Amino acid sequence: xxxxxxxxxxxxxxxxxxxxxxxxxxxxxxxxxxxxxxxxxxxxxxxxxxxxxxxxxxxxxxxxxxxxxxxxxxxxxxxxxxxxxxxxxxxxxxxxxxxxxxxxxxxxxxxxxxxxxxxxxxxxxxxxxxxxxxxxxxxxxxxxxxxxxxxxxxxxxxxxxxxxxxxxxxxxxxxxxxxxxxxxxxxxxxxxxxxxxxxxxxxxxxxxxxxxxxxxxxxxxxxxxxxxxxxxxxxxxxxxxxxxxxxxxxxxxxxxxxxxxxxxxxxxxxxxxxxxxxxxxxxxxxxxxxxxxxxxxxxxxxxxxxxxxxxxxxxxxxxxxxxxxxxxxxxxxxxxxxxxxxxxxxxxxxxxxxxxxxxxxxxxxxxxxxxxxx
Length: 374
Hints:
By secondary structure, this protein is mainly beta. It has helices spanning 4-7, 17-20, 25-32, 37-43, 48-52, 57-65, 102-105, 298-307, and strands at residues 73-77, 84-89, 94-101, 118-123, 126-131, 136-141, 146-151, 161-167, 170-177, 183-189, 194-201, 214-216, 219-223, 230-234, 240-242, 251-258, 264-272, 275-284, 290-295, 315-320, 323-328, 334-338, 343-347, 362-366.
């Protein structure tokens, strides 16, 4: 005859407090690290120890490594959302009923938060704003509610290219300025809180300065105007080089995205006489050859090209948690490619956007990181 405990599978055995109360803290934290973030956050109110784990670097690192990530968001910046930034949860797949508010989350910035404050970049849990009135930058961590004012190296606060680069235990800021007699690059290192200037180089980027560079293997990569090519800037040495790889033919525009270390992708329009007939995605292989990965389906391609009116200067791209996002300043939706599934999708329009919306859509990848240092 079967034991009674096996005859009633729905009845769970009681947990003996005498045993579980002696469980080593390290093992308990390891068990908790496998919980979904939402479940763990609900446990914070049960005891002081659980609440303190939110501020434990070792526990949060273990939580992330266990496959229970924080929510990751696509953040929308638009002139009609004054200093507020709607969030799309890319894990849940829907818009959240909350926004990031610069004035509410960072009250200590005081008078530095002005109408001219502009969101410039987001990376590794940090968000960077420009503060033209004080000729400075504001770097902040909304989760930790910490911020830092970085004095801009020139007056006034103007630049042709701006890149916010995550590095180990900090970040770097790349700024390209052409207001001087020779083009100059300024690089800010958060570890030493200072700027380094590199100048006296040829303007190899041509007229296409305003494209944001992408970080890949220690360098920033940029595309030039026609005839298209790719150049890179080494952050440590300050040297410019031209990438020795032949680009695909019949390109009408090109954009780059990267995961920082392993993958460098190229998105481009293919056509003649400056008019795109199709859009394709390529990946740079170990031999520095561009290998075609996917083509955008015809109907989706027609829609995207129609919303940007073949004005490709309005197109920009970035990588977000395995999604290659292709955006247009004039359109409220994101076209994205899911790398793992090799599928194309449209992100739904923000529901809080007014019916009569204007241009100026800026999208950013925002992955909260409690311990990201400003």
